[in-house]
Every structure is written in C-alpha cells, then in structure tokens.
Write a structure and sequence with these properties.
Chain A has 135 residues and is mainly beta. Chain A has 1 helix and 8 strands. Chain A has one domain: OB fold (Dihydrolipoamide Acetyltransferase, E2P) (Beta Barrel). The longest helix of chain B is centred in the middle third of the chain and has 16 residues. The chains are: A mainly beta (135), B alpha/beta (395). The structure holds zinc ion.
Amino acid sequence: MAQYIKPLPQITAETREFWEGCKRHELLIQRCKDCGVYRHYPRLMCPKCGSWNVEWVKVGGRGKVYTWTVAVQPFHPGFFEDVPYAVVIVELEEGVRMVSNIVDCAPEEIYIGMPVEVVFDDVTEEVTLPRFRTA
Amino acid sequence: MEKFTLRDKAAIVGIGETEYSKNSRMSNLALLLQAATRAIEDAGLTPKDIDVVIPAMHVIPFEELAVNLGIEDLKYAVTTHMGGASAVASLESAAMAVAAGIATNILCVTGWNGYSAMRASAIGQAGDASASAMPMLSPMPKLRDFEMPYGVFVPAQWYAPMAMRHMHEYGTTSRQLGAVAVACRKHAQLNERAMMRGRAMTIEDHQNSRMIVTPFHLFDCCLESDGAAAVVVTAAERAAAMRHRPVYIMGVAEGHPVPVDQIAARPDMFQIGLSYAAPRAFAMAGLTPKDIDVAEIYDCFTWVVICQLEALGFCNRGEGGHFVEGGRIVLGGELPINTHGGLLSQAHVLGMNHIVEAVRQLRGDAGAAQVKDAEIALVTGWGDLGDGSIAILRR
Ligand SMILES: [Zn+2]
C-alpha cells in the first residue's frame, strides 16, 4: 500500500467501537438504551434524555444525500490529486447524518436526495473509513 | 423586583485599529497592543485606567496583554471562544462586568496575522505540508476524526453544504451571493482603511472568479488579513464625560446552535446561533429590525450574510437571497450593510472592525460611507460552526 498521507481519525475511548465496527465492515451507530434515539457523532451521554446507557446498533447503511459541496481547491497535500472532490452529508434511514464521500460518481452527478449506501474503504491497516456509493 | 437588564448600562467610548495588510511585519502581540493602545487613547484614557481585558478568541493570552499595558489591578479577565462571533460576544461580557459593578474600563481586543502567518489560500497552492489549514486553531476533536479524513479542512467547507441546501430549498442563487460581495466591495471604495480600495468589482467579476468550494467562488470568501482592532467599554454614567460621543449598548446577546459542534446533525441547518440570540437582543433593546439604520453583518462568506439577515428577522426564511438584491443593502438603500467593506473587502480581523465601523457610524465619523443621521446600528458575529452574537448600539 502506498503511503497514506490524508488525515486519519484519532481513535478515542468514546469512538473506538465505531472505528472497530468499520474495520469489520459494519456501520455501528449509537442508540440510547433508555429513550431509543440514535445519535452520531458518538457521545458519552444521550443529548435527548441524559442517559449514559448506550448500545451500538449495526445499521443498514442506506440513506440519501442531504447536502453536499465540491472542493475545487485543495486545502491539504493529501488531496492535491483528488480535486475536484465532493464532500456529502448523508442522512441514514435511522435519521442520523454523517459527513463522507461518494465513491462511484462524478461530483456533478450528485444531487440532494440521491439514494446511497455505505461501502468500506480500508485506507490503512488500522483505519477503515465508511464512504458511500449510489444505490 | 424589576427584571435586571444590560440595556444601556455600558457604552463604547474608544476605538482603535492597526493598518490592515497582507504583511504586517509585526507579531500578533504587537498588533493587538497597537490596536489596544490606540483605542485607549481614543477614549481619553491611559492603560492604567483599564481594569478588564477581554481577548476575543485566544490569539494572545490576556496575561501578556495586561503585563505589557502595565495594568495594576486587573479585576476580571475572560476570553470569548466563539471564533468569528467572539468580538461581539466580548461586548456582552464587557457590559456584564460593568453592570455588575465589577469593573470600570474594559478593553476588548482581537486580531492576528491572518494572512502572513496562516496563508490558508496559499497552502493548497504551495504544498506546504508542514502547515495545516489553520495552524493557530487546533481542530475540534470531532471535526478532526469525522470530517477531516473526508477532506473537510476550512470554514468554507463547513458552510458550503449549508449554502447548497439553502439554494436547494429556497432557490437562492450565486448571483444573490454575489450581490453581497459587490455591496461590500462598493463600500470599500469609500474607505481608506479598506484593503480592497481601488479594486472595484462587478457581479460579472464575481461570477467569473474561480470556484473554491461549491457554491463559493473566490469572491464569496472573505479576505485574509494581518491586523487588529480594539474597543474600550465603560459604564454608561461615566461615558458622557469622555472624549467622544458615547455609543450605548442597548441590546447584546449570544446564541449557539444545536448540536453546537456538528453542522450535519442539526435538524434545521438554518437555526443558527443568531436565531437564538437576535430575539433576545431585540427584546433587550426594545426595538425591531425596522429600527435599524445600519448593520455590520459578519461576512466570512457571502452566504452567511444572507442566512443571518433571515435569522435577524429582516426578511422571512428563504427570502434572504432576494433581500440582498436591488441595492437594498448598499449605502442609500433600505438597510446599508458593511459600510466599511466588511471582512469581504475591508479586512478580516475577526469582526472587531465591524464594531469599530458601527461606532464610527453612530459618532458621525464614517466619512464618505456615513449613513445619514444613523442613530441605531446593529453588529453581528458568526463563528465556530454557526455560533452567533449580536449587539444593538445607539448614539
Ligand atoms: Zn436517551
């Protein structure tokens, strides 16, 4: 594998299960065990009810593009070869939203409401990033 | 018991600015001290009269400012941490300190070598791998872990998806964004302190400027500047005896969107910090948007001006794009905004220059950009993923 020079997440106690799920190619989203509300980013406490009881739910990874943007100018050496590249905000069927990329279509083909599903990109031996493809 | 209010408890009595440039050849500390001492002198005070220092954003620790200024009895020190909303939020802390009887003369100051030390635009072109996009600001941990790996590095990329969604929902257009840029540039032509003086811009220039991140063209993005600005706030009852006509703080508030650290998760992306803060500030002042004579709206990007005009209630949700067209926000229009040129065309010193300009307007010292008989001015701040701050000022 060529040297990977894009930024990587720092894996913390709060987020470890999310990233370990990604390594197994499973998208795990937190759900409050008391009020049942899904949340992402991972949090220690439920913003809805204050509970510390949480479970990690393997979700289907299907959703729609909520909004998006295309970076035409690079802001980091790791992305010099990538411009123009799209950054999307995907709304999953479970209601949570996440920032990601679309792997299988050109930026100009992306539209709000576009159906997408998760794919897993093993960018290093330690880190797998969830990205999305058209569905 | 009568409800406590900050209304009219404090006044801005001094303003100071450095030169705005792309190469200050001064340290951040020197810039802030130069703006600070100019504001203190403008107030007719000496540094020894200052008993509170409020750095807006953590560029320089208050300790270094206080020691250099020779402050002998620092009664209160706090730093506002709201990115571009910090400057106007510092007025809130200043008014509180005065109203609570904690302090007498408060220095609010910020600035930076925002071009020569940061060079956000140059990093992509020069390939300086040692520099992160905003080296002075360590990224919020969740942005670092869940957005940077996908190529999200700079504020333009935080707000661009909001603008794209606004365009989708309400039909806002790039030319409407451009109307904000053109208005600011027009006003900069009247301001000898504006970096873009002498460089006029048409809507076609805006449309033809290169794309940075969709939908933001180059001319939708503010300047990167070296410079600093400062104001001195004092108790209202002392203000009338001071050198200049006082500018009273009638209403002031801050607000934070939910969740505050993540734009993507907000059920309503356009419910920004200012959406919470503006009604509080207008209620405190006992005014409505119709009463505002001139508005200095934080303009890191053109679209955030449109979003804030909606949140402020100058127009309904979705109508901001239409509102900024047709000369309404240009001098002589219904609501002149950013009469100094704004961050887009004067300089980016984190919005403290917006407060300075509002004070000039209310003193009647705004020169060629003077709004005739301006009595009430509004200033906003926007930063850190949509935090908002607002001050309503009167002469
Ligand atoms: Zn809960």
